Amino acid sequence: MDNVRDVAKQTLALVLAGGRGSRLRMLTDSRAKPAVFFGGKFRIIDFALSNCVNSGITRIGVVTQYKSHSLLRHIQSGWSFLRNQFNEFIDLLPAQQRVDEEHWYQGTADAVYQNIDIIRNHFPKYIVILAGDHIYKMDYAAMVMDHIHHGAPLTVACIPAPRDQATAFGVMKVDETGLITDFIEKPKDPPPMPGDPTRSLCSMGIYVFDAEYLYKVLQEDAENPDSHRDFGMDIIPALVREKKAYAHDFTKSCIRNRGNKDICYWRDVGTLDAYWEANMDIASVQPQLDVYDTSWPIWTYQVQMPPAKYVQDINGTSSIVRNSVCSAGCIISGSSICHSVLFSAARVHSNCFLTDAVVLPFCVVHRGCRLTKVILDRGVELPRNLIIGENPELDARRFYRTEGGVTLVTRNMIKKLRETEPELFKDFDNYRSNRSIEYV
């Protein structure tokens, strides 16, 4: 059998990063879901791309479609270190109507099919298909080795999940050998795992195909007028019925937390509540996701900025920061920050109290604000003494409040608030910063 290094060199990874991401609401108004900021300095797509590079898979295609400018710019700026002369690359594959000059990508399977000529030109033996919108650390080469061991043309990565959450995923049944015997996409009543009625076995949206077999099934799918052109709805169920798909247990390839080897961390941050919770986990004392592990680094692009700084206000009050992440370029002046994540160049003025807050890059929180369980989108600037997170009815009227009680604030919301409640912005222009930043 080939060794892991040889297998990685024979593998091409395709990251599907073209989804609308509508469940993240206004966070994806101007950017694709994989381009959304996460964890203080990263973008969501950095985790899938870092897994590829750390696994030794350095031939990567990123399939994009909706609102992809921010995503493309991030990849071009932060992922240009791969060397083409060593057959390493990240190939950007936007929708180009390459096949029939009529349709954009109609589904996940169609997105791969429309780039099949480009994929063939790289002569891969195995193709790993990934979602670009999940947070996890995984050795894809180990999964490819498992795929080779089973000898079937398809392997699907799987993870147990609570049944009430499994309705958002493809759910499978497997036999004792790992053969998938049934696959249901987003069932209303997910079938339980054998011996555990509280959980279901869910697809992670990670597939390994024998390349030649993938070309064949994509061609057949393209010729089927009844197909949804989707891996989860069409391709995977068909191969399961033919008994050609095996499950790969995530525990075999998960890169575990150094402090707790029992944890296999994987999160779908597709909703605002899930996105907020995952960021809060980064800020916890012992986060389940270890982003400080230098043996499996998360690569990204970040503008060069000075270190974070904590200063006293004009009255000599010191800043207090507890269980929080403060990224480069942040300045905290005489304020209290508790269990929060502050991204690059966030500015918190005096006498502010931030608790359970996710503050994206270049936000400014002016004097006297109180924020609880809030997400500030990039570039938001709050007027003095604004209180968010303490009055659910008022928050829902002014901003967007989730069922889980998280309040999302965007620049457009602040603009409308200024029109409807101008008294909040009295003397605001006298204190706001003069900046020229492109916010995406």
UniProtKB/TrEMBL annotation:
Catalytic class of the enzyme: transferase
Biological process terms in GO annotation: glycogen biosynthetic process
Catalytic activity: alpha-D-glucose 1-phosphate + ATP + H(+) = ADP-alpha-D-glucose + diphosphate
One GO MF term attached to the UniProt entry: ATP binding
Gene3D superfamilies named among the record's database cross-references: Hexapeptide repeat proteins, Spore Coat Polysaccharide Biosynthesis Protein SpsA, Chain A
Keywords, alphabetical: ATP-binding, Carbohydrate metabolism, Glycogen biosynthesis, Glycogen metabolism, Nucleotide-binding, Nucleotidyltransferase, Transferase
Pathway(s) per entry: Glycan biosynthesis; glycogen biosynthesis
Domain Nucleotidyl transferase span(s) in chain numbering: 13-283
Pfam families, alphabetized: Hexapep_GlmU (PF24894), NTP_transferase (PF00483)
Organism domain of life: Bacteria
Functional summary from the UniProt entry: Involved in the biosynthesis of ADP-glucose, a building block required for the elongation reactions to produce glycogen. Catalyzes the reaction between ATP and alpha-D-glucose 1-phosphate (G1P) to produce pyrophosphate and ADP-Glc.
Quaternary structure, from the entry: Homotetramer.
NCBIfam families on file: glgC (TIGR02091), PRK00725.1 (NF001947), PRK00844.1 (NF002023)
Name of the protein described by the UniProt record: Glucose-1-phosphate adenylyltransferase
Organism: Succinatimonas hippei (strain DSM 22608 / JCM 16073 / KCTC 15190 / YIT 12066)
